[in-house]
């Protein structure tokens, strides 16, 4: 019998110059690999003669790793692949029981290996380090430094040893309940038997291109590597990032023309998910053979694979165990000949050569259809477990069918049955049958039924919970489906007691190093889910009760638990600001925004409130009325810009609302008049006195709002009217500075257009105006008192208070922060322009809309809660990364609007409170997503502490050089909208009130990103851009880059930003249309 070294050498002799292995930009021929591995053999045999010595190989899958594997087989040592990601318990077990002093690693990990040996107090007799140039450095016990092993015998003189087929050749660790795992020792004859069988059975040869997908520490990697090398095929190895990203892996499979894929079904399902989303790509059209093993395969999987692979391709479903030497049965499905039902489990066929698969019940072989336990009988088992006699006795047992002689078989722990033709159907683990309330429940059967649902891509059903109150839990990936809907879909096909009552969704099911579903992660997610439910215990102390009431009001929820995180149940940066204001006013405790993040539960916050010194709430005073009043700093800036710029429209604010019902124009007019009298700023005008702009209040009895009514059923006319209204030119020295027009489209169908000067309102104010107007109108229709609370303050009170604050020492301290923070900043960083920037800034705008995919939104929400950051912080972090990637700049400033309503009494007021805060981030390239997120979080919290300084005062104080083509300080704005909504206002006189997207887009910055939570909880992004700098397609591409960055953040928050090469994704993303984009001009 030929063993692996000889089988490989035969291929070297036949195809010496053929490429054997290809990885990223490297490749090696069969002859070069032979020479390289022989050099290692020579080096190892100079030092170690014991044929049972284990060789620990600490390297990822690579040419160097495979050369070390071949060297171990040739030298008669035991190849043991080790990953630095192993748990401490497993690593300790390896080093204490399976380490004979011989270790091979590559130069990238040599320091980590040294630290590992020191950590566990062991030393290496020989530590071999392989460089990127395949040079060998050796460090022996007692030596201080490694030496270059160039004195090694030439490769062709490598000293192989005589191999006995029964000797050990490899060791792989399987999972174990202790975390250390169990080392299974393979034999030369057994692995050679399997390799020769697979090559022959699947007719593999030099034309085969085989993907190395399995983890190098999983015995399935032997199936990829040794089969390929002994067949004379090309083995292709993806880089680690590609291997774990389904989209990248498919691109890699296609570009490398891979025609043989061997993996577990769950990995194939992940690939199929991408294929289904992008059918035009035909990623797997060149694949001729798919070998699946390690998990249950379902007929629906086969049908899905059949749609993607080439017409004459084949799928093999195989079965075995590490202990039985890789795989021991095969069902080869000829897709061109067989018809496949969409339901049920795919059987695993018949045993491979020299193997018998016995289904036994008691001491008898089962008949066809009878269920029993599966045993494997073959002379090509492994040697069993290293240093675990108890487990050996439990699994390697006397054949239950034989009593008169010693006949050791492997007891799999699986149960199954024979089908017609003695094909074997594996039904699952013996422990997949559980008892629930005294009823025997088959978990694998439940899983098979759930997988028939088109929304479910992959699932695991487990019995979870305490022994006295267990429950069936379904973990699944695919489309997010409410649990109640899942139950209703399953009730017709499953008995009541078999229907899970808890469904936990994963964007992708978690997998361990072996590629199988990681059930420990499932358990952790269940515990997290239950802990979150347990956290809903009600508030205890008086302080907790008061805080809970405030939380409910702000978050619009009816129940909150004392251990729930503010951010996990809907809190945002803006609502956190509102929270600090309410706590200050109602409890006389002044909390900083950072306190909300550090003490994000009711219990933690209550403890902080109780320990914090009470501070009397200092209200903004009512200012004595005079003929003229000072402008607030932001008003002053708008007024000055209006004098300089021709584009008055850029300082208008326009909103339009559609609604249904019958409108009485006389009451509409009266409602608007009452509204104007309610908010003083709505009957305020502007003038110049002694060279200074001032504001003055027109007496309440003077202003009467004239509301024209225009009737037109034509949509084009409606759009023209709205565009004209948005461009309305206000005279600032007289009323009105807000204009209202009612458009009657048809019977009971109206649109209300409101346009106001930014001098008297911001976006938040427009929501208040519409809310108050509808409420007043409703009261007039119903002939009842207006149900609006009195307005405590008017805008002039705020502007006078703010002007006084600017003269204080506290203001100077806050200004000092901004001077230091922005010193030396570059105000011109922006997203890469497509067109030449005009010499003078323009405001021509367009916009592209995107709704964030629901599953990605859910992942971001989960990440936000776990990381104790707001959703805004996550989204802004990715935006900074996008700007860095597009501009190449490592130090940048982005504008962040602050609502300016950190006091409760300011929330119902109309006026311009918005203050834009410049947030500066540096050293982006050298950080990971995670560290940048923390920097952004800290920058936002610090900015909030100093947000009372008006932005225009900062610009003036810094004496920033003005360029007419640019804005001052920054060119990009990132906005999370969280404003009063009127869509769900409970009124009877009109109905279906909804805000319209108006057609006129005014681009005040190069690009402004608006993020808004829509009705139903979805997250909408709007990229508003200057059309003189960017085209729609260009902005759409930027949006897609941003979406990819969000996905990358959820997949790997430790990813170094300097290593992100997002352009490699663009061929995939820009073709896929991950969002539907629309443009408005």
Automatic annotation (TrEMBL):
GO molecular function: catalytic activity; phosphopantetheine binding
Annotated GO biological process: amino acid activation for nonribosomal peptide biosynthetic process; secondary metabolite biosynthetic process
Origin: domain of life: Bacteria
Cofactors that this protein relies on: pantetheine 4'-phosphate
PROSITE patterns registered for this protein in UniProt: CARRIER, PHOSPHOPANTETHEINE
Gene3D superfamilies: 3.30.300.30, ACP-like (1.10.1200.10), Chloramphenicol acetyltransferase-like domain (3.30.559.10), N-terminal domain of ligase-like (3.40.50.12780), Nonribosomal peptide synthetase, condensation domain (3.30.559.30)
Coiled coil spans: 519-546
Keywords from the named record: Coiled coil, Phosphopantetheine, Phosphoprotein
UniProt name for this protein: AMP-binding protein
């Amino acid at each position: 019998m030929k063993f692996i070294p000889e089988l490989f050498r035969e291929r070297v002799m036949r195809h010496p110059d053929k490429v054997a292995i290809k990885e990223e930009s490297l490749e090696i021929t069969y002859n070069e690999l032979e020479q390289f591995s022989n050099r290692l053999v020579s080096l190892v045999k100079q030092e170690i003669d014991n044929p049972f010595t284990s060789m620990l190989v600490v390297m990822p899958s690579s040419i160097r790793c495979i050369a070390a594997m071949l060297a171990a087989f040739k030298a008669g040592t035991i190849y043991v692949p080790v990953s630095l990601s192993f748990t401490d318990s497993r690593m300790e077990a390896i080093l204490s029981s399976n380490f004979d002093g011989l270790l091979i690693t590559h130069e990238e990990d040599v320091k980590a290996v040294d630290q590992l040996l020191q950590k566990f107090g062991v030393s290496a007799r020989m530590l071999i380090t392989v460089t990127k140039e395949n040079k060998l450095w050796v460090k022996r016990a007692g030596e201080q430094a490694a030496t270059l092993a160039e004195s090694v015998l030439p490769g062709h003189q490598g000293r192989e040893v005589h191999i006995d087929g029964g000797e050990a050749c490899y060791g792989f660790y399987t999972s174990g309940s202790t975390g250390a795992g169990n080392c299974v020792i393979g034999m030369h004859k057994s692995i050679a038997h399997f390799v020769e069988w697979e090559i022959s059975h699947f007719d593999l040869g030099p034309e085969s291109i085989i993907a190395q997908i399995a983890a190098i520490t999983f015995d399935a990697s032997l199936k990829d590597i040794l089969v390929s090398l002994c067949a004379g095929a090309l083995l292709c190895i993806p880089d680690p990032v590609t291997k774990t990203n389904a989209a990248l892996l498919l691109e890699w499979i296609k570009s490398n023309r891979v025609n043989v894929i061997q993996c577990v079904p769950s990995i194939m399902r992940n690939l199929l998910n991408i294929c289904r989303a992008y059918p035009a790509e035909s990623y797997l059209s060149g694949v001729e053979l798919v070998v699946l093993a390690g998990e249950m395969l379902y007929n629906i999987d086969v049908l899905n694979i059949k749609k993607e692979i080439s017409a004459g391709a084949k799928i093999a479903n195989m079965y075995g165990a590490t202990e039985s030497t890789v795989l021991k049965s095969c069902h080869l499905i000829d897709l061109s000949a067989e018809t496949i039902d969409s339901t049920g489990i795919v059987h695993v066929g018949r045993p491979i050569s020299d193997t018998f698969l016995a289904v036994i019940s008691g001491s008898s072989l089962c008949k066809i259809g009878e269920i029993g336990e599966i045993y494997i009988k073959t002379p090509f088992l492994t040697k069993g477990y290293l240093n675990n006699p108890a487990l050996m006795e439990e699994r390697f047992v006397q054949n239950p069918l034989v009593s008169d002689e010693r006949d050791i078989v492997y007891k799999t722990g699986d149960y199954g049955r024979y089908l017609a033709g003695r094909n074997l159907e594996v039904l699952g683990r013996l422990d997949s049958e559980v008892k629930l309330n005294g009823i025997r429940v088959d978990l694998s059967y439940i899983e098979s039924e759930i997988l028939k649902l088109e929304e479910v891509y992959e699932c695991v059903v487990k019995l979870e919970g305490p022994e006295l109150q267990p429950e069936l839990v379904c973990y699944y990936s695919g489309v997010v489906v409410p649990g109640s809907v899942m139950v209703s879909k399953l009730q017709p096909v499953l008995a009541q007691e078999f229907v899970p009552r808890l469904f936990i969704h994963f964007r992708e099911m978690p997998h361990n190093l072996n590629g199988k579903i990681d059930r420990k992660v499932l358990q952790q997610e269940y515990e997290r889910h239950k802990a979150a439910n347990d956290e809903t215990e009600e508030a205890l102390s008086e302080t907790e009760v008061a805080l809970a009431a405030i939380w409910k009001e702000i978050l619009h929820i009816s129940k909150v638990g004392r251990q729930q995180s503010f951010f996990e149940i809907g809190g945002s940066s803006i609502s956190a600001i509102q929270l600090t204001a309410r706590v200050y006013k109602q409890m006389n405790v002044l909390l900083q925004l950072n306190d909300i993040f550090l003490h994000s539960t009711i219990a933690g916050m209550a403890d902080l409130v109780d320990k914090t010194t009470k501070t009397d709430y200092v209200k903004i005073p009512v200012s004595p009325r005079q003929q003229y009043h000072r402008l607030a700093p932001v008003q002053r800036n708008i007024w000055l810009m209006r004098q300089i710029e021709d584009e008055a429209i850029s300082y208008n604010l326009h909103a339009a609302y559609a609604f249904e019902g019958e409108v009485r124009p006389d009451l509409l007019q009266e409602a608007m008049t009452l509204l104007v009298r309610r908010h003083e700023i709505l009957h305020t005008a502007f003038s110049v006195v002694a060279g200074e702009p001032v504001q003055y209040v027109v007496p309440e009895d003077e202003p009467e709002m004239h509301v024209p009514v225009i009737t037109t059923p034509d949509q084009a006319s409606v759009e023209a009217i709205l565009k004209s209204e948005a461009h309305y030119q206000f005279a600032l020295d007289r009323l009105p500075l807000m204009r209202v027009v009612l458009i009657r489209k048809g019977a009971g169908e109206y649109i209300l257009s409101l346009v106001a000067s930014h001098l008297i309102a911001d976006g938040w104010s427009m929501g208040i105006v519409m809310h108050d107007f509808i409420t007043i109108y409703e009261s007039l229709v119903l002939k009842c008192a207006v149900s609006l609370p009195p307005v405590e303050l008017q805008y002039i009170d705020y502007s006078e208070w703010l002007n006084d604050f600017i003269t204080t020492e506290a203001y100077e301290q806050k200004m000092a922060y901004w001077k230091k923070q922005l010193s030396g900043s570059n105000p011109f960083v922006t997203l890469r322009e497509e067109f030449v920037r005009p010499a003078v800034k323009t405001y021509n705008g367009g916009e592209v809309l995107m709704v964030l995919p629901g599953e990605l939104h859910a992942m971001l929400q989960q990440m936000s809660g776990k990381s104790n950051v707001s959703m805004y912080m996550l989204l802004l972090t990715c935006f900074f990364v996008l700007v860095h990637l597009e501009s190449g700049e490592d130090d940048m400033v982005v504008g962040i609007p602050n609502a300016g309503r950190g006091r409760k009494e300011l929330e119902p007021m109309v006026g311009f409170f918005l203050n834009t805060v410049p947030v500066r981030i540096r050293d982006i390239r050298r950080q990971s997503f995670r560290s940048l997120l923390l920097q952004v979080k800290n920058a936002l919290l610090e900015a909030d502490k100093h947000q009372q300084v008006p932005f225009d005062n900062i610009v003036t104080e810094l004496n920033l050089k003005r360029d007419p083509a640019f804005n001052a300080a920054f060119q990009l704005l990132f906005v999370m909208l969280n404003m009063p909504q009127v869509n769900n206002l409970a009124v009877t006189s009109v109905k279906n009130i909804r805000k319209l997207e108006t057609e006129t887009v005014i681009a005040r910055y190069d690009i402004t990103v608006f993020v808004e939570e829509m009705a139903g909880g979805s997250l909408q992004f709007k990229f508003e851009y200057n059309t003189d700098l960017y085209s729609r397609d260009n902005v759409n591409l930027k949006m897609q880059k941003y979406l990819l960055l969000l996905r990358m953040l959820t997949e790997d928050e430790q990813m170094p930003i300097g290593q992100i090469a997002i352009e490699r994704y663009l061929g995939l993303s820009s073709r896929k249309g991950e969002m539907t984009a629309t443009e408005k001009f």
